[in-house]
Amino acid sequence: MIIAKKKDGFNGEKLISLPKFIYEHNPDRLNFLNSLYITHIGYFPKAGGHYRNRPKGCADNILIYCIDGKGSFSIGKVQYQVSPNQFFIIPATDEHVQYSSDPADPWTIYWVHFTGSKLPDLNDSICDCFSPKTIPFDEHKLKLWNIMYNCLENGYSAENLTYANLTLYYFIANFLFPKKNTELISTPNPELTDKIIDYMKANLAKKLSVEDLAMEFSYSVSHFQNLFRKKTGVSAIDYFIQLKLQKACQLLALTDLRIKVIASSIGYSDPYYFSRIFNKVMGMSPIAYRKINTISNQD
User: Fold this and answer.
1) What value, to the nearest 5°, has the Cα angle with vertex 295 and ends 293 and 298?
2) Where are the alpha helices (DSSP H) in 103-176?
3) Which fold has domain 14-183?
4) What would the pLDDT profile of 141-165 be if each residue is shown by its tens digit?
């Protein structure tokens, strides 16, 4: 059976091509979008007959992620075969570019075209991705693609464009560093930090030191501090202070309790010291915060 070659029109496909003028009339506050932005985005399931021939290349980068089936592509005279769980990036080029689905086992692909003023700088650093790279299948990448697609499908408001294109950076990063996402969310004990934070919340009225916290969870102080900072990015004591002040903000806005009482409820016996800490972190005094954040002033 001969399958007709086509560039799109596959059952179940998704496809958005953004009008060129969308980025040409950005307000000044959105000029940063010109650094790197989406021009086309799509999903082709079981794309039998998929074929694109670009004799003059393409002005965009094209990232194609094959999750099933097979395909091939060529840049100039260099040809590559593509298998499931591989991605590749065709860089912006004026060389002849061609890519197609395998006739016997057509690929299923997620893809995105992107360009921008910083594209040459990006391509200088990712040239090893211009050939197929095998990566573990990860639903997270597909979720990011769907975020970009859904934003753009809902229209080209400044908010949608900004959210979709900032997500593009994260989407690309997940392909360039496929192991990093797993590393960042993995800890020797993934539940430890949540338990520590729950313990802090239950003891806001206490003056806990890092030694107290480490002892509570049977860790040495140095190991405890390293684990907590790796997960949250801040020290345990700084995080504890943030939780205390978060509670203070709630009490200031939602109750008429005196400052002294609020300070005492989160472990500060000296209301003046509490006020200094509050002002340092929040940029205003507790009294000023209450004045502008009480419910009566929100109408």
Assistant:
1) 70
2) 119-125, 139-153, 158-176
3) Jelly Rolls (2.60.120)
4) 999 999 999 999 999 888 999 999 9
